[in-house]
Amino acid sequence: MKLLQTEVTQLVLHSLPKDPPPRPDIPRSLDVLKVRQIPLGYYRYLYTVGRAHHWTSRNLPDDALAREIHGPNTRLQVLYCDGGPAGWFELDAGRAPKETRLVHFAIMPEYRGLGLARHLLAHAIIAGFEEQPSALTVETNTLDHPAALPLYRKMGFRPVSRRLVSTPAYEE
């Protein structure tokens, strides 16, 4: 297994922003829907967005993946643009006391550059505070999309730590 070196930045947000960003000015219908008991195949399709960034934490056998994503603390929402999946996020609400974690956040490649990331992240932030945690946290690393860290900061997240880690390279 090939290992890659990356710098991980942990960020935190302690309250909802005062003003959510405006809806993207695009002539398309946008819907963000909660997904309960997402089919494993559909989740795996959405998760493919992470291949380019070496996401591997959900490359699991069916039973282990189902335990992770169908667990009582997991919250998933999918952004649909004109009916097609354009992005998604996954929250872990309550595994850590008084904290919700934004586990995964992604815009599908064919929908990038339309202003959808800010729109979807605003939904993730609102959903992240639904259970009134004292903090919403997220981690990003230097293998993620280069716009990830600036977007999190623009939306109010503040870095609290950085660390170097070795992570498995995505291999098919």
UniProtKB/TrEMBL annotation:
SUPFAM superfamilies according to UniProt: Acyl-CoA N-acyltransferases (Nat)
Record-annotated N-acetyltransferase domain positions: 33-172
EC nos: 2.3.1.-
UniProt-listed Pfam families: Acetyltransf_10
EC top class, as a word: transferase
TM region(s), chain numbering: none
Keywords: Acyltransferase, Transferase
Protein name: GNAT family N-acetyltransferase
Organism for this UniProt entry: Aureimonas populi
